[in-house]
Structures
1.
Amino acid sequence: MFDDPDARVGADAAHLETCSECKANFQVIADDARAVATLLAVPDPRVDVDGAFARVMREPKAQPALGLRFPILRPARRPALALVAALATAAVVVVAFAAGGFFFQPTKVQAVPITLSDLQALSQLADYGTFNWTKEPQFQISPTAPEGDLQPPVVSKLPAGVSTTVTYGQMSQAVATFKFSAEKAAAAAAAQGKSLPKMPANMDGATLTITVGPAVGEVYGNLEQPSGASGNDINLPQLIVAKSISPTVTATQVSVTEIEDYIVQLPGISDELKKTIGAIGDPTKTLFIPVPVEYGTSKAVNVQGVDGVALGDNTGVGSAVVWIKGGHVWVVAGSIKQSDALDIANNLK
Amino acid sequence: MGLNLGARRLTAVRTDEEAFEALFTAEYARVVRIANRVLADPHEAEDVAQEVFVDFHRLHSATAQYGPAWLHRAAAHASLNRLRGSRRRQKRELAQALDEGDKMLDPQKQAELEEDRRRLRQALGRMAPKPAAVLVLRASGLSYAEVAQALGVGIGQIGTLLRRAEATLRKEVTRGTSE
């Protein structure tokens, strides 16, 4: 209030002039603000931007995207669809590369802690074959709930501080294929000067068919740009809830075990990930959520009576809960406390 | 077809690298300022800024509209996390104490102010992440709208969050003084 330009105008300003109680309160607030400002004051450091930029660019850039990209969305649509796209991307990537199988249809979720080096190692797989969309996902956003069989989840009660402004997002069902090629794998490895484990004969030419969505979601928060703001000033969503039909994968020629065995032999895969993959019981029933250990945390939780995963980012502000129930993958995510995310998840309908 | 795809990917990469350089140039000094506000140590603040930009560059597209907000929030939290690291804090306090010993100008007042500042930073480290970040970001010159975007809260809440955080911090500093 002390330094809020909008707090002391009109009737409020007039009241402040005449009310001794409010005047005294204002004085306390102003004293606190001035004291804190004085104590926090430090001289602005002089910085060498060019030198700092050169140092940052010398750091290797990880490529966690695994080489798969959704069709480019117009920038204005990205924030509202971020989670749906992220969910679908994660599903495609994780399903295609971490699990595999003759027929994959997950009924539960499990977090898999991975390192950036694992991500880089796994990203090589994208070059070991050909990725194609059979049916590209279509995205739509609207200010009202979409009509159709798949209805967006209903949040019973929003935590304090979360905006009630809602934007709805939809993603159509998408189907993609990935065809392994021993020739492409060898060429990709040769280009990077690496030696590869030999691809099993039946894996060469094997095709994974991945089906994700449809998905629906709600984004809470005012996504409109504030008046007079530049293009970079769009608001971040505070809360996103989404559900998607569980993804499926079918595979020709190759078994789950063969894909797992091949993945653990790739150069760069950590011992921890090898152990985790080795400990997977029936990978055709579990959706694995990769959690980069450098950036996030995860723990197993019970959501609506089923096993779920609670995720948190290392900044301590963002959190998410993911679970599978009734043939749907459900996600609650946002810049909210993990306990709030879990509370919303347990009361989501 | 293959060539077209390759050329398109190359253009996208170049555009992203250019966008990252533009983002870096626009935001680096501000990210250092935010970290320095917390740590009161320009060298450590530059370390934090470096980490924050490396993390952003690793995992995000520089054309993402949330870029500046992400950087501001990450700078505040990364530097507050450093402040909370007990070993580092002890080292910093020792260094600050030595610095104070070197200061010859108005030693009594200077020492009192430095002591208050040291207590303030200890208190910041004890506060919950969100109120601490609100204080730091606002003190670093971010507007109410920028603080709201960085922390993903409504702009209407910033005044209240800030007022409560200031009162909490002042109380914490006073508590530290009386201990």
2.
Amino acid sequence: MATSVIETHELTKRFGNFTAVDRITFQVQPGEIFGFLGANGAGKTTAMRMLTGLSRPTAGEGIVAGYDVYRQAEQIKRRIGYMSQRFSLYEDLTVRENIQFYAGIYGLPWRSIRSKTSELIERLQLGEVARTLVGSLPLGWKQKLAFSTAILHDPEIVFLDEPTGGVDPITRRQFWEMIYAAADRGVTIFVTTHYMDESEYCDRISMMVDGEIRALGSPHDLKTQYDQPDMNGVFLQLARHSERS
Amino acid sequence: MRPLRNIIQKEIWHILRDRRTLLILFGMPIAQILLFGFAITNEIKGADIAVLDRAQDIHSQAVTERLVASGYFTVQATVHSEPEIEQLFRTGQIKMGVIYPSDLGAHLESQQPVEVQFIADATDPNTATTLVNYGRAIVGDYQRELAPLAQPPRQIQTELRMLYNQELESVFLFVPGVMTIILMLVSAMMTSIALTREKELGTMEVLLVSPLRPPLIILGKVIPYVLLSMINTLLILGLSVWVFDMPIRGSFVLLFAESLLFVITALSLGILISTRTSSQQVAMMMSLMVLMLPTILLSGFIFPIESMPQPLQIISHIIPAKWFILIIKDIMLKGVGWAFIWQETLILTGMTTLFIGLSIRNFNIRLS
């Protein structure tokens, strides 16, 4: 087995007396689509913030892309991509300007920015709206654009924070095809979601309840283990005794 | 430095594409300077008065002529009874009434005390006081002319010289004030809004996850506003020099450098506000309440600090605008140099350092 691209050992985050993330331990393999599931407030976002260098862990160990989350946040940031649940594009900038801006902040050379921008616009078939302000695009297009800009600098891992909120099922399906394509190119996908049906698309998932990882494995294994027909059943069984929801 | 240029470029796109921001940025300074310069003035010109002349002699006519000739008064009505004056006050047609007694001429010639009555509309106390004083002075002058020898021998004559602003142009007072407010507004409010907007949209998160260092993000976002503020400074100074003949007696370079310092002070306040808020609405309200109101009320721009109660005077010391207004007045009107303003400059520098330090601390707390 190849070395893991994300590795945590008893990673913990406390805010005062409140333990948001409680000693989570897991590994993610290169090219894997790793689903990070849990109800709102279960600690998903805090865990992700620790892995992306936005938040310092209170205790435990964390290695992302081979770098330590405590001391090497800068190196980690160069090797990861991030897409937030609000798609985080600038609505008053055009499609082309958005792509160029995000490519630019990763310090890509100008020539590379230009070729990558044109290539991306062509691949997403956005040629006709390249000069249109992003604000006037349909949600699904924005989502694809946001994902594409998040992986424009060829990161090893891309973190997706509830990327499919508010999008219709067909667009969601298309979006997952993009995720598969990226994973096939070797990009590791770390995705949080609370759509349980979506978790079936992941290679492996972890279920977070009250800051702890209660279950970890492939969707098939988890369904067998908890004897449930779908992931929703698994989740309900695990979250039944949650103190936070 | 490509990423920095990227952020600056993006911020300029934001500004140029937001018509409302542009309008605020450039329309407001021009509108305010012109408003304060032309419309709002402490001087009184051609105030409407009513005259009740019971004397009807050469003296009463001469005094009325002098009132009009002074330029301060215009005779709006000649009336025949006191209730008529009252009526004119009620309808707001006059600012002052003048009543000459029937024995005016006789008493003046026999050198007995005489009473000319001024009635003023004190709903506006400042104007009323000014008008009555002008009127009293004009009557006094006339009296002295009539009987130059009757002057008491030991009368003290006062001689007035108004330094630095001999014509008492109120625009000389307003330009520094308006400039201060505009720079405060553009620099602090606009930056706090621009920064919180990124938080609100969630784009700040993406920037923070990128390899960009937070100071670079803020620097990139703030630089366009520094440029805009300095353009505004030139615009306001240009208007005040060419339209209102306001002098710049001191060094222009020094004035410009001090303006830059104040812009940075305001920007650091804007950044500080943005570290405490996460929505544009709150940022705007905080800028208005915490910055604009004290700047307008406590900086000495409209209300003289000397006449404030002690606690407010103390508070005024922590208003950056107060120090900046002092600096501008010193340089523009008094024409003094560095030796006279280094203390104010030091205070502003200290405040700026404090604000930036607090911003960094807040930022770190938020990240941890």
